[in-house]
Automatic annotation (TrEMBL), chains A, B:
It comes from Acipenser ruthenus (Sterlet sturgeon). The lineage of its organism: Eukaryota, Metazoa, Chordata, Craniata, Vertebrata. One of its GO terms (biological process) is innate immune response. Keywords: Endoplasmic reticulum, Membrane, Nucleotide-binding, Transmembrane, Transmembrane helix. GO terms for molecular function: 2',3'-cyclic GMP-AMP binding; cyclic-di-GMP binding. This is Stimulator of interferon genes protein. It is a multi-pass membrane protein. One of its GO terms (cellular component) is autophagosome membrane. Residues 1-185 form the STING ligand-binding domain. It is found in: Cytoplasm, Perinuclear region; Cytoplasmic vesicle, Autophagosome membrane; Endoplasmic reticulum membrane; Endoplasmic reticulum-Golgi intermediate compartment membrane. It catalyses: H(+)(in) = H(+)(out).
Length: 185, 185
């Protein structure tokens, strides 16, 4: 089960390392005078998981109501023989209908990108149906792992969504994000 | 099959991105006056894969004949909403019995670290026997993928080894690496 390994790898190789340090990283960013993240309930990594696994590299190209602001301070860790490997998070402003900005640390779940590309490589023998099933399994497995992780509590928020209707609304993605942010604010 | 997904993810999310750029990155490093990598046949990413999946974060702590020299220039890519994500490779000197240094770009296969940690987390229901089987499957799957990858040809070398005897020889790891390097020099 491909998704099972990807969920564990995402947790072990990334979330378990970075989530415990996230609030401090945001605090450092704010201390430098960047007072955009006012609401501490949103001091989390918001992880986008579109069911289609079509992951944009630049979110603002997906929806003009999303604007990249800056990266948080780098997290630097010696890992598996790579010295000073760098882990980064990006801060975005997401504009609502009243053009007010809502700030959050946001990124897509990179393993879904692997699922997408596997479904395009004939050698992988992995169909579009397999991919949808594995995307859901990835989410369920990751949710179970994180529900049981004390180190990562309250430092993340999953935004899983069915983006099959996304093409019809140029602001589909910002609306999905805002709905989740407003539940926290 | 956990290893199947990890191998594909390692190729799609890492090797396919970095290996085509590796020779240029080494060239830039040499142009700055660092003339250590003289033999172009060794201008490859040497990927260590110990069967036990016990992956050290600092290789020199494993074997005093291995010395970290420097990192190559960063590879910076916008990926899945993370802006300017950084990919790094580390350059090492590996000393032989005659104390001569042999230089190479070296790291461990990070997904094996995930397999190791999964075998330690009870929630993953993944035994030490599963882990050994999956480590071998990871290697076989990755080898198949890379044998078929035109973009990555000649830019990598797998160093898979059974490290069950490693504890008895403080220079086990450097000898394993040197055997592979000497086949290329
Ligand atoms: N040696 C090494 N150096 C790297 O820079 C690197 N980047 C990725 N990988 C390995 O390639 C594969 C595919 O990566 P992907 O990004 O899809 O998944 C990654 C990704 O979803 C997330 N992650 C890891 N590092 C970062 C990061 N810096 N920023 C965002 N996400 C990250 O957590 C997953 C597991 O990471 P690793 O367990 O380090 O191993 C990965 C993985 O096996 C790397 N391996």
């Amino acid at each position: 089960n491909v998704a099972h390994g990807l969920a564990w790898s995402f947790y072990i190789g990334y979330l378990k390392l970075v989530l415990p340090r996230l609030k401090d990283s945001i605090q450092t960013f704010c201390d430098k005078g960047n007072f955009v993240l006012k609401c501490k309930d949103t001091w989390k990594l918001h992880i986008l998981m579109p069911l289609s696994c079509t992951i944009p590299d630049k979110l603002e190209e997906e929806d003009s109501n999303i604007e990249f602001l800056d990266n948080l301070p780098d997290i630097v860790i010696d890992r598996a023989g790579v010295r000073r490997r760098v882990y980064k998070h990006s801060l975005y402003a997401v504009y609502d209908d009243a053009k007010r900005p809502h700030h959050c640390v946001l990124e897509c779940a990179t393993p879904l990108l692997s699922l997408y590309e596997m479904s395009k490589e004939s050698l992988a023998e992995f169909s579009t149906e397999d991919r949808l099933e594995q995307a859901k399994l990835f989410y369920r497995t990751l949710k179970d792992i994180l529900d049981n992780s004390r180190d990562c509590r309250n430092s993340y928020r999953f935004i899983m969504y069915d983006d099959s209707e996304a093409a019809e609304d140029p602001h589909f993605l910002s609306k999905v994000i805002l709905k989740h942010l407003q539940q926290q604010e």
